[in-house]
Design a protein that fits this description.
The complex is a heterodimer of chains A (about 180) and B (about 550). Helix content of chain A is about 45%, strand content about 20%. Chain A is elongated and about 85 Å long. Chain A is of the alpha/beta class. The longest helix of chain A is centred in the first third of the chain and has 28 residues. Chain A has a seven-stranded mixed beta sheet. Chain A folds into two domains: about 30 residues; about 130 residues, Glutaredoxin (3-Layer(aba) Sandwich), CATH 3.40.30.10. By secondary structure, chain B is an alpha+beta fold. Chain B has six domains: about 40 residues, no CATH class; about 110 residues; about 90 residues, no CATH class; about 45 residues; about 120 residues, no CATH class; about 110 residues, no CATH class. In chain B, the strands form seven sheets. Chain B has a six-stranded antiparallel beta sheet with strand order 4-5-24-25-3-26. Chain B has a five-stranded antiparallel beta sheet with strand order 15-16-19-20-21, with no helix packed on it. In chain B, helix 2 runs antiparallel to helix 4, helix 4 packs antiparallel against helix 7 and helix 7 packs antiparallel against helix 9. The chains are: A alpha/beta (about 180), B alpha+beta (about 550). Chains A and B meet through helix 1, helix 4 and helix 5 of A and helix 1, helix 4, strand 16 and strand 18 of B.
Chain lengths: ~180, ~550
Amino acid sequence: MKKSTRNVLRVSIIVLITLLIGITLWFNLTSGTKTVNVGDQATDFKLSTLEGETIQLSELTAEKGVILNFWGTWCKPCREEMPDMNDFYIDGHEDYEIVAVNVGENQQQIRQFISGLEAELQFPIALDSEKSVTDAYNIGPLPTTIAVNKDGVVVKKQEYQLNHEDIASFIEASIE
Amino acid sequence: MKLKDIRCESCGHVNPPGTQLCQSCGKMIDNDYDKDKIKDLMRYDGSAVRSKTRSKSIFDKIWIFFTSIKVGVSIILAIAVAAAIGTIFPQEYFIPMGVDPAEHYQENYGSLGYLYYSLGFHNLYSSWWFLILNGMLALSIIAASIDRGIPLFKSLRNQRVKKHSTFFRRQRLSAMDEDAGKVDKLVDGLAKKRYKVREEDGNYLLEKGRLSRYGPYINHTGLILLLLGSMLRFFPGMYVDETLYINEGETEEIPTTEGQYYIKNEKFTIDTYEKGDGEVFQKALAEGSSVISNFQTDITFYENKSADIVGSAPDLEAIDESSIQVNHPYRFGSYEVYQSSYDNSQMKSMTFRLEDSSGNTVGDNFTVNLENPESTFPITEDINVNMRAYSPDFLEVAENGTLISETPVPRNPAFVFEVADGNDSELSLLQIMNSTDITEDNEYSVRFVGAEEHIATVLTVKKDHTIPLIATGFVIFLIGLAIGSYINHRRIWIRTDDGLLMAAHTNKNYFGMKKELNEVLASSGMEPVSDKLDVAQTDKDEE
């Protein structure tokens, strides 16, 4: 074998194996838990609400920024942040929409939860009974709140209870 | 230092630098080479192991590093040690579903367990460093094989019939006879032993079983295919091994099918052996334990006709019905769905009865579905029980009277029941073991009768496109091993210029070759071969 052929062979084998290791590692690290991060395109979904209506994310984002609040009746911070979100919502929501996505609970539990709140919730409560949206967004702890702008891009995400400033900044982020 | 090609002093053949024995005539070029060795003299036929000659660019340096046998063995050792450590604590797929692995290893195995987890031993076969080790093993196998295999192949292909007389002296087996005329009979006899004969001017080369020398390289090819196959498992769509948990009567999406296929668990059955079902389990049955004869899930297989956006209800069309049993999976496309285990730890419903103040049961029992409870349960024509509040995992009573749950899982259900008999209503809080009257002087009390569990089947969804590659690799590996182990590469050189001089070499099994040679030598009227090792041994014994 000529020296040049030998060099080409050596270099190409080393490069090929390095490349294959790299690709394998990349597949390995990116598989499984694909969390939704700021900058990602928000997955479109369609859910029915407690009132029996159907909402679709892409239809909402066509006109407004959307704040998705994933919650459960048993989660204490959810119970605490809901009335605050409601206060903001009542003050006007021409530019944005709040969708409170309940994670996999039955209507009895949700209605019981709402009747136990002093505030009268105005924003729609979407029922993710099969947890398919929760899985698609790979939601970890509850509450998790995600702001989606009019382009359908995730612009803000928080995995703990929202205070007043947080709610304000979520609204602002979704409108921009 | 620049290494030069070496011209053989004897025959003039130009050899690559690092050559030990002239590729053409077999005369020793490096005088320091294997002075005392008889055995290893012919390794790689004395050709230059290529990596031992030049070292220039960074790629050459990497290459040379990986051609080293020491490095190769170190990598194999590292993989073996890592795999051994990986068995100290269970791998992640053996720990209970849904628990946080970091906590699990810390709690069960202490700080050593936490270290185990942080270094990735809990998921050994997909940890980044284990993948890199395997990649390095592949590079080591390829580089070492190319650097040793190609020169060996060339020197075996280019070997000349005529060898220098010193080459004869160095071979372990040799025979001599003053009568050069015996050569024809000798060569004839050997040809009958299926040696391939080449002749040049009274010099002979007889050879068989050359394939044996390529055994290790065939074997390595198989190993590379095996590594390639195991690598492809990480590529999307190549390999699926997922668990699917379905309660009886429920329908679930099959993971990794992008919502296209669904399975409904129609019925889950466990059969046990009974006394009299043959001999095998009688002892166990006599001791009172039950032996399971069959796990079975009866399924309906659905295809989703509207592969619509997330969250929308699927439009399912029943395609097939089947029964999945252990080792009898349901197959669709390239998927297989196996029966794995079952679970009956989740509560499904609770049954209650109503009792009046004198302790008599009133009306029918009523059952509360814990997943989607009704709000009213008729007991008699006049009396209803209304469920005013329910918490699946009771934590506390909120200020406004509703029940607060700790988790959504029905582990410790609590209820507030209202008993209404048309005139008044009374309230009571009920937990499984405990009931408290909310209103005073209750006439009725609700009593817990029993609970029913969900029966869930646990299925494993599998798909593996790497099996053909891995199987091929394994077969090639075994073929290479067999070729290298059971075929002997035997060569015999004969000179007839000064009497008859014969030398013989084999890469293994000298005993067998001596036996074969002596048989032919005897029939040609020659003395048996002399073996240098025997001579050396005799010398030692005489001392």
